[in-house]
């Protein structure tokens, strides 16, 4: 005999687990179907294993951003913080509003979910992908390798295409397309960039704090960020770089500002370099930047500035050459050739059209009883806990299905 549930959750990530907990709080017979051999794999990777659960600051969302804001008005930050605390997770706040479990361990979060799900009697089916989902009369039928199950309500919370090693796939899109929902093609976000090889030659492994400005082919500014920049074999990475991935396309440019955190303007750097020149006049030209940049990066800056270094010393540099060096310290230019793709992306741009869902319950406007939450939807946020916050809030709303918030 086919087992029947009040609420079936497809996907054991943040959105799905939060939904299961919320529904079970009302006594709903609830089951979670997870294709991996463990729940919460992407939660475990969040914040480099420290698990950046949410953000207390201004909300930063893209895609169907208005929908994301409506979701977080229906289940705001203070309610989400209370929900985490009810699960037994105390939060600590760090810079820029980033909030973590006070243990700074993702295992704290997955363990808390496991305890609450077991206490609430939620069934967990691991290594159990849903191959087919259809609706017959008033019930949904879920076909899996472990059997066929029925449910009155279903939540699709399979995530997006990003990070396939952690379970990312297009399965959620396919299930929702079957019910007539439209999908915006998925692309990578929060992803390292690839650049021209000349500008990064010899710099792999170097980390430097600075500014990142993304510009289009006409030199118009598209985005500005600040933070730690990491040079790789194929380009650049770091949070401030990955924030630009949703707009950085082949033919755009990145300008790196290495000097802005030290000097308020270019002229002050020029004057500092001219004074430095007097003290290192008998050394190689790149030594003029010692104390400001590491040697390899100093060499790259001089090279991009067009400085003739063969057989010359720092004392040989003209004022015009020093000004060009200062200019490149404030705007070291790289040509974007692409990004590292969905394999290395932390989140997906695109997904299911949010206008087809109710932001208060996450229920489909097309199919009664069908819900979607989390990254499968066309919502992506900045680094800093925004994506996990949207996933959790939207999952809870799906689990509640219009019922008032209870302690979870």
Task: Give a topology summary.
Layout lengths: L2 E8 L3 H12 L4 E4 L7 H5 L8 E2 L5 E3 L1 H10 L2 H10 L4 E3 L4 E4 L4 H14 L3 E3 L6 E5 L2 E6 L2 E10 L14 H8 L4 E7 L3 E3 L1 H4 L6 E9 L5 E11 L3 E3 L1 H4 L10 E5 L8 H14 L15 H10 L14 H12 L1 E8 L7 E6 L17 E3 L6 E3 L4 H15 L8
Parallel strand pairs: 1-2, 1-10, 2-7, 10-19
Antiparallel strand pairs: 3-6, 4-20, 5-6, 8-9, 9-10, 11-18, 12-15, 12-17, 13-14, 13-16, 14-15, 16-17
What would CATH call the architecture of the largest domain?
A: 3-Layer(bba) Sandwich
Helix content: 25-40%
Query: Quick one: CATH class of the largest domain?
Result: Alpha Beta
Number of domains: 2
User: Can you tell me the residue ranges where pLDDT is under 50 for at least 5 consecutive residues?
Assistant: none
Extended strand count? 20
Mean of residue pLDDT values: 95
In angstroms, what separates the terminal alpha carbons?
31 Å
Q: Given the C-alpha coordinates, what overall shape results?
A: elongated
Main attributes?
408 residues, alpha+beta, FAD/NAD(P)-binding domain, 2 domains, 7-stranded mixed sheet, 6-stranded antiparallel barrel, 20 strands, elongated
């Amino acid at each position: 005999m086919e087992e029947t549930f009040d609420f079936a959750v497809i996907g054991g990530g943040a959105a799905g687990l939060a939904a299961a907990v919320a529904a079970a709080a009302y006594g709903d017979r609830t089951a979670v179907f997870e294709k991996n051999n463990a729940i919460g794999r992407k939660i475990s990777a969040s914040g480099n294993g420290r698990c950046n659960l949410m953000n207390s600051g201004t909300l930063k969302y893209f895609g169907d951003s208005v929908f994301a804001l409506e979701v977080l008005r229906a289940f705001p930050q203070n309610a989400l913080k209370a929900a985490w605390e009810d699960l037994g997770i105390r939060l600590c706040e760090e810079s820029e509003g980033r909030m973590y479990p006070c243990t700074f361990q993702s295992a704290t979060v997955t363990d808390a979910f496991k305890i609450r799900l077991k206490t609430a009697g939620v069934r967990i089916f691991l290594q159990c992908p849903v191959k087919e989902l259809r609706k017959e009369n008033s019930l949904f039928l879920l076909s899996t390798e472990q059997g066929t199950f029925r449910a009155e309500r279903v939540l699709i919370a399979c995530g997006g295409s990003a990070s396939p090693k952690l379970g990312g796939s297009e399965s959620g899109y396919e299930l929702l397309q079957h019910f007539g929902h439209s999908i915006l093609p998925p692309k990578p976000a929060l992803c390292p960039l690839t650049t021209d090889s000349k500008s990064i030659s010899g710099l792999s492994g170097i980390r430097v704090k600075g500014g990142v400005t993304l510009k289009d082919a006409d030199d118009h500014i598209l985005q500005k960020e600040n933070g730690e920049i990491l040079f790789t074999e194929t380009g650049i990475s770091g949070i401030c770089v990955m924030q630009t991935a949703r707009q950085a396309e082949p033919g755009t440019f990145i300008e790196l500002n290495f000097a802005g955190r030290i000097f308020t303007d270019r002229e002050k750097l020029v004057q500092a370099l001219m004074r430095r020149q007097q003290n290192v006049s008998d050394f190689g030209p790149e030594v003029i930047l010692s104390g400001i940049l590491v040697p390899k990066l100093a060499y790259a800056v001089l090279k991009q500035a067009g400085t003739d270094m063969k057989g010359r010393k720092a004392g040989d540099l003209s004022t015009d050459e020093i000004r060009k060096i200062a200019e490149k310290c404030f705007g070291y230019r790289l040509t974007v050739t692409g990004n590292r793709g969905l394999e290395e992306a932390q989140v997906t741009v695109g997904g299911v059209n949010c206008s087809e869902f109710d932001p208060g319950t996450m229920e489909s406007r097309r199919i009664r009883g069908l819900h979607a939450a989390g990254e499968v939807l066309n919502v992506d946020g900045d680094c800093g806990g925004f994506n996990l916050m949207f996933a959790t809030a939207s999952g809870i709303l799906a689990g509640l299905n219009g019922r008032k918030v209870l302690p979870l």
